[in-house]
Amino acid sequence: MKAKVYVTLKNGVLDPQGKAVEHALHSLGFSEAGEVRLGKFIEVQLSGTDRAAAAERVRQMCEQLLANTIIENYRYEIE
Amino acid sequence: MKAKVYVTLKNGVLDPQGKAVEHALHSLGFSEAGEVRLGKFIEVQLSGTDRAAAAERVRQMCEQLLANTIIENYRYEIE
Questions:
Q1: Rounded to whole angstroms, what are the CA distances from B25 to A19, A46, B33, B56?
Q2: Fewer CB atoms inside 10 A, N or C side of chain B?
Q3: Please, what is the average pLDDT of chain B?
């Protein structure tokens, strides 16, 4: 199985890296680009076959390591 | 409209950050975790209403700025 984890900054948290990308897009002529937010996309290979158990373990991974839950949201899919 | 862009390292490209996360997961007791790959997840707000035109522009953004196509793959969705 494989877990796909998406970690994004919470609304209201400043994203200077996203701002930099936004300015760079404008400089390149992409005037239609509005707000840009940067997050992380994490793929984790998992052993085992129990999807429900794997989902719970991935939730624990996010809480303990993959996301900083003070400033970040996360969601995940098990494939 | 909003574009969601996923940028991932190509197969065969070393991912030391992913390796570090993998070791950290093992240290925390997540022994089921196998290979970990880290990528980027980018959300771009877009003005305009033409989805096909927007998709082509986002492809150009990826090629020119958002992804390093030598070592990274990208995919995107328009919402």
A1: 31, 12, 7, 39
A2: C
A3: 96
